[in-house]
Amino acid sequence: MISRRKFINTVAFGLVAAPHGAEALQAGKVYRIGILAGPMPEGRPTSRWAPFRETLRALGYVESQNITLDWRSSGGKPERYPDLAAELVRLKVDVIVAGDNPAIAAAQRATNTIPVVMVVAQDPVASGFVRSLARPGGNITGVTVQATELQGKMLQILKEAVPASSRVGILWVPSEPGREVQAKEANVAARALGLQPRSVEVRDPVDLERGFAAMAREKLDAVQIHASQLTFAQRVRIAELAAKNRLPSIGPPQWYVEAGGLLSFGAKDSDQFDRAAQYVAKILNGANPADLPIQQPTKFELVINLKTAKALGLTIPQSLLLRADQVIE
């Protein structure tokens, strides 16, 4: 069932995106959409991709009828993306949908002609994916999550949840494009809030164990988890390590809290996938990605896990609870 909001959006968008009249899609043609995704348990798309598929269907692009979705999963290993992107290019897909920065970087290297739609791009200009947000200028367009700008807000929420905190860990993955810019911004934002940041670089699951052990030894008060292929694939383990070491934590939108983390804040995940699907539909209907401005998020979500708070012996301020979009009890 499609929501009232999505119905209104898709009706308006459908005036330009849905197949009709002289500008209709080629009769009988099945368009191929290649998707570079993160970990997919049992080879099946995760629920994160449900809004993407629902929006395509609402706009008249139906799997096994006029579109085929060619899924390629990194399995949590971003180093696989270049081969997967090259494979999609060989399949001559009509559009590549890239889920995150490593996927976008791989698609960018693999082709400069096939349109690429970003879903949760983090700082696409600083990462070198597009010339500007208003005028992408190449074959890449899509949706950004404004990750750099959100660092201060995330740390502000973390400090509000743990008022006595003074030293905070910034856990990030330096091997992925765009992450260094975010880590630097987090350090600046932490100091502006009167916090002393401690950079914790991780490159593999073993580094996670070492990083949390170091934060525990140094008696840090809290930790901010940055989005990446590694932290998404290891989200349950990260939440476990944070709990084990008595570290209140904040991570990327919703999936971190659902895995057991304390707090999450960021662009609403489902909205990102919804709007990426709209751009795919526009491109299939003839739009040039160079002319489609990068969309910035308009909806943000704060999610709080009270079960985790209780386990940490932490009382979440009522002011924060009242602002939460979702509270897990």
User: What is the residue-averaged pLDDT?
Assistant: 89
CATH topology of the largest domain: Rossmann fold
Number of strands: 12
Silhouette: elongated
The CATH level-2 architecture of the largest domain is identified as 3-Layer(aba) Sandwich
**Count of all domains:** 2
Rg is 20 Å
Uncertain stretches of 5 or more adjacent residues: 1-24
Assign the structural class, choosing from mainly alpha, mainly beta, alpha/beta, alpha+beta, or little secondary structure.
Answer: alpha/beta
Could you outline the blueprint of secondary structure elements for this entry?
Layout (H helix, E strand, L loop, with lengths): L3 H14 L13 E7 L12 H9 L8 E7 L7 H10 L4 E4 L2 H10 L5 E6 L18 E5 L2 H15 L5 E6 L6 H14 L3 E6 L3 H13 L4 E4 L3 H5 L1 H10 L4 E3 L3 H4 L4 E5 L1 H16 L15 E6 H6 L6 H6 L2 E3 L1
Parallel strand pairs: 1-2, 1-3, 3-4, 4-5, 6-7, 6-8, 8-9, 9-10, 11-12
Antiparallel strand pairs: 10-11
Helix pairs in contact: 1-11, 2-11, 3-4, 5-6
